[in-house]
Design a protein that fits this description.
The structure holds two protein chains of two kinds. Chain A is of the alpha/beta class. Chain A has helices at about 1-10, 70-85, 95-110, 140-150, 155, 170-180, 185-195, 200-205, 225-235, 250, 255-270; strands at about 10-15, 20-25, 45-50, 90-95, 115-120, 210-215, 235-245. Chain A is built from eleven helices and seven strands. Chain B has a five-stranded antiparallel β-sheet with strand order 2-1-5-4-3. A five-stranded mixed β-sheet of chain B has the order 7-9-10-12-11. Classes of the chains: A alpha/beta, B alpha+beta.
Chain lengths: ~270, ~400
């Protein structure tokens, strides 16, 4: 069972510490996106990296359309990873949609978590005016889905529009994994829908663990207003506005990312 | 001619858009072609964020796909994008990118004609998918299958529970019920066999026989209640858990006047369920808090509530439907139990503390009530805190006739 999980979610465990630190990738990528950050924590933590089913080098045959149409399905993946790696009381680091996935998992089974580090989180991407600015209109997301679809056009038409194992065309799956960290256009689309049409604002106030919100400057996907909203709504949260711009500080500014994480972890252990 | 040009000039007049982007996302250089294509001057593009070039959806795509791709693989090829011209018109392009030192070099080739062709293919594919998606017969069948599966799930969990109960009941009939009967027989034999019993001895023996008879009756009553749950005709109603809990706490406190408890209680939601059973569930749990209180600590009871989503399907594999559950935790600072007993205590007629009264029946009944509501119950005891955690769906699945 545990071996199955390691294969299914392509789990990689490293590091010399005993406290687990789990890194969860966001929509559109895989565990590789943490490669500039996690080595800095290897001496002090047990590092756990993984891919959600349908992303990276996960076992795509384990994909279930009902499970992964809901962020709770991804949260179940995360909890399975916690169980398989025996990671109780972990420091959870989640980028983008994984921040919310981490929150959902921490509400379901709190004992697996001790602190939540949320990189570029957003509880809802679509504006809900006048009270809430998420940054996007529904039509922007529809267009994004269209752009994604267009990028898969070459082979999306070749193969049936269902989830396929690509047994007969392994080179295609391999190629696409290399280019877009996702093995299947239908999976990618469903992940996009689960991500961008989600509304988890109600879950924020239930958060029990201390959390750090790492807010980038000029992040179109999670604008400043969203970071402030999160900080105001999540109990026991700390907001850190980063110098890094864009949505991927762990890739564009890994040193600042590491420093901010370490500072937070040091401060919180002192208190 | 071309060979005469300095390479920089060549880049400037090349028949495709070329830009370089700094690590902070600012455009360092934009060639003539891209400026003309989008209707900007060089000054309007250079030193601006690259996002100025994109439609909103393309910005998301850039941040979630394109940028990570370039960062991880040092290049990107044949990526489709929509650029945004100064006059807001959208311009379809294919992008190529590579990393040079700290900067990203990006090439955009407009694909207006090819795009029209692709749009048609996509549209045809979408139409075909929609026909399947919206086919009424299929939709209806899907709805029916969904209902059937929900019913199968209910039947399966029922069957599983019945099986477990059957095994338990079998043990009870063959052991728990036999034990007092066997002892009664011994005492009856003893009374019959001896003529010279003193009145005092006679009294002691009779008392013992009385106790065994009472135990037998208690077991029978409990068993009857336990089995009767399955034939209950009670209907599902909407239960205000806050009011119910308040009522339970008052009742239990009134019955046990020997001590008072400090109670902290979260606000609890409304759930669908069988009112009398849910009442019984919490009455048993709260009564246990009092019964197993610690002699040296004043009793504290904390009732917490969190709403979370879980898959309603537990028995049917690979079937998922996430629905809202409430997790209610009843925590006390009582005597608790050892970890290895955390499952044992939910067994029928299983007792850890024979000196505290009770038939070892309450928690078994709790488990059955929770499972009848498609929920689950677990317990843990550590650091002087004992917590019973109950998971109940807010709405009961629709039941077949």
């Amino acid at each position: 069972m545990i071996n199955e999980m390691f294969k299914r979610n392509n789990i990689k465990v490293s590091g010399r510490g005993s406290t687990p630190m789990i890194f969860a990738h966001g929509f559109g990528c895989d565990q590789n996106m943490w490669r500039y950050v996690y080595p800095a924590f290897k001496d002090d933590y047990k590092i756990v990296l993984f891919d959600y089913v349908g992303s990276g080098k996960s076992d795509v045959t384990a994909y279930n359309k009902e499970r992964y149409s809901d962020l709770n399905g991804y949260a179940d993946d995360l909890l399975d990873v916690c169980k398989a790696t025996n990671s109780t009381g972990c420091v959870f680091v989640g980028h983008s949609v994984s921040a919310i996935i981490g929150i959902l998992a921490s509400l379901k089974e709190p004992e697996y978590f001790s602190k939540l580090i949320l990189v570029g989180p957003s509880p809802r991407y679509i504006n809900d005016l006048p009270g809430y600015v998420g940054g996007f209109e529904r039509k922007d997301i529809e267009e994004l889905l269209h752009t994604m679809e267009s990028n898969y056009i070459g082979w999306a038409n070749f193969l049936a529009p269902a989830i396929m194992k690509n047994d007969d065309k392994p080179e295609l799956a391999g190629e696409l994994t290399k280019s877009f960290c996702s093995t299947d256009p239908v999976i990618a689309r469903r992940f996009a829908e689960a991500t961008f049409f989600s509304d988890n604002r109600e879950d924020l106030k239930k958060v029990k663990h201390p959390s750090l919100i790492m807010q980038c400057s000029e992040d179109i996907i999670a604008p400043n207003e969203v970071g402030e909203y999160l900080n105001k709504t999540i109990p026991n949260s700390t907001l850190h506005i980063m110098k890094a711009t864009g949505h991927c500080p762990h890739m564009s500014a890994p040193i600042e990312t590491i420093d901010v994480m370490k500072e937070y972890l040091n401060n919180i252990s002192l208190n | 001619m071309i060979a005469d040009l300095a390479s920089e000039a060549l880049v400037d007049i090349a028949p495709c858009g070329i830009i370089t982007i700094a690590d902070n996302g600012d455009i360092i250089y934009a060639n003539k072609y891209i400026c003309t294509l989008l209707g900007y001057t060089k000054a309007e593009l250079e030193h601006k964020s690259v996002e100025i070039l994109f439609t909103i959806s393309a910005r998301i795509f850039y941040q979630t796909h394109f940028y990570p791709l370039i960062k991880l693989h040092k290049k990107a090829e044949e990526v489709f994008f929509s650029l945004k011209a100064k006059d807001k018109e959208s311009v379809p392009v294919i992008a190529y990118a590579s990393v040079t030192g700290e900067n990203i070099c990006c090439v955009f080739v407009p694909v207006r004609q090819r795009r029209k062709y692709e749009e048609e293919i996509l549209q045809a594919k979408k139409t075909a998918e929609d026909v399947i998606e919206k086919n009424e017969t299929l939709l209806q069948l899907k709805g029916e299958v969904e209902l059937q599966l929900a019913e199968s799930e209910r039947q399966l969990s029922l069957l599983k529970r019945f099986n477990e109960e059957y095994i338990q009941l079998n043990k009870i009939i063959s052991h728990d019920l036999h034990e007092p009967v066997r002892k009664l027989m011994i005492y009856i034999d003893r009374l019959q066999g001896s003529q010279d019993l003193t009145a005092e001895m006679m009294q002691i023996n009779l008392e013992k026989m009385m106790n065994f008879s009472l135990r037998l009756r208690e077991l029978a009553v409990c068993l009857q209640q336990y089995v009767a749950l399955d034939t209950s005709k009670e209907l599902l109603t909407l239960i205000d858990l806050s009011a119910l809990m308040k009522n339970v706490l008052e009742k239990v406190a009134a019955e046990d006047s020997s001590s008072t408890a400090l109670v902290h209680i979260d606000s609890l939601p409304e759930i669908e369920g069988y009112q009398s059973q849910v009442q019984r569930l919490f009455a048993e749990l709260i009564a246990n808090c009092y019964r197993f209180r610690h002699n040296e600590r004043s009793l504290q009871i904390t009732i917490r509530s969190t709403e979370v989503s879980y898959n309603i399907y537990k028995e049917i594999r690979e079937k998922y439907k996430y629905v809202d559950f409430v997790r209610i935790e009843v925590e006390d600072n009582g005597t608790g139990f050892l970890e290895e007993y955390s499952d044992y205590i939910f067994g029928l007629f299983k007792q850890l503390h024979f000196d505290k009264g009770g038939a070892g029946f309450g928690l078994a009944l709790c488990k059955k009530i929770v499972e009848r509501h498609q929920g689950s119950i677990s317990a843990k005891s550590e650091n002087d805190h004992t917590t019973f955690s109950i998971l109940l769906p807010l709405k009961q699945p629709k039941q077949g006739s």
